[in-house]
Amino acid sequence: MLPKCAPKFGDSMLWHPSCFVCTDCDQLLVDLTYCVHNDKLYCERHYAEQLKPRCAACDELIFSGEFTKAMNKDWHSTHFCCWQCDESLTGQRYVLRDDHPYCIKCYESVFANPCEECNKVIGIDSKDLSYQDKHWHEACFLCSKCHISLVDKQFGSKLEKIYCGSCYDTQFASRCDGCGDIFKAGTKKMEYKTRQWHEKCFCCVVCKNAIGTKSFIPKEQDIYCSGCYEEKFATKCVKCSKIITSGGVTYKNEPWHRECFTCTNCNASLAGQRFTSRDDKPYCAECFGELFAKRCISCSKPITGIGGTRFISFEDRHWHNDCFICASCKTSLVGRGFITDGDDIICPECAKQKLS
């Protein structure tokens, strides 16, 4: 295509047709009316704007010497109006919201928040303090209990009311299960199930040492360190009084270490062995027989009775069943009649022979 010549610049100025565009909007000006201002090309619309401002409301040029400049735009004085009620804002205070101007009255009626305390609108000339979607005038932001100002102070909220730190703690703060005092803000809590303590109050009920991160054992409403719990409640051997940590033997409803449950006489272990007792003391079968059992007149060995051993007694004399035999013929006299012959016993037949 032939280059475009713009006589208004002089015959020496040439453009590609695609480069012959408006300086403001880049509209192609080939075959259109073009204008020149300060050695720059413009379409008719933007050329006019170099000479006169354009109203942002009606998009017409403003020929009047008086107009309004607001929001970085130009307006006919009668066209700069409230977005809500269309009242002129020229010379009036206004508020921008979402790039739209509002008169003070409309802005406060549409957008301003009601105060939680006095229920009056928080106007643009008042500071709006908010918390959890609620709003207050600065002068109305008070403790619900003591009514001191909470501006720039710590506060708490409960049941849709606000309180200063002191009043909140007094009425609502949780309390230590140890000392009964409240947990102030920032205080470290020690918690177990539904109970909680100050760190210094979470201590063993016996030794009073703080538990901290050490292991502990709860019992009813009390807390014990491991050592004190074992000392107070753990099962102890009745012989050595030391704690039984595993295994053990129960004798007469009392606990023993296996190694402590021994014969009273010879100290042989009785764990898993047959034993008997005398005066509430345990003895192995051998020691019990040697120390306490009746002795057989025949064999002089103890008659213990352990394991179901049977014996015969007669006039302060005792025999094992197997030893209760005739002194002459050696036949068993268990269940039979017998006759004494000095220290011996004999069957009736042998007695007859001895007398004949």
Rounded Rg: 57 Å
Mean pLDDT, to the nearest integer, reads 83
Per DSSP E runs of 2 or more residues, the count of β-strands stands at 26
Number of discrete helical segments: 6
Overall geometry comes to: rod-shaped
Low-confidence stretches: none
How far apart, in Å, are the first and last alpha carbons?
174 Å
Portion of residues in beta strands equals 15-25%
- Strand count, sense and closure of the main sheet? 2 strands, antiparallel
The secondary structure category is: alpha+beta
Describe it:
It is a single chain. By secondary structure, the chain is an alpha+beta fold. 13% of the residues lie in helices and 25% in strands. The protein has helices at 44-51, 104-110, 165-172, 226-233, 285-291, 348-355; strands at 4-5, 14-15, 35-37, 40-42, 68-70, 73-75, 94-97, 100-103, 128-131, 134-137, 155-158, 161-164, 189-192, 195-198, 216-219, 222-225, 249-251, 254-256, 275-278, 281-284, 294-295, 302-303, 311-314, 317-320, 339-341, 344-346. A two-stranded antiparallel sheet has the order 1-2. Strands 3-4 form a two-stranded antiparallel ribbon. A two-stranded antiparallel sheet has the order 5-6. 17% of the residues are buried. The model has no long low-confidence stretch (mean pLDDT 83).
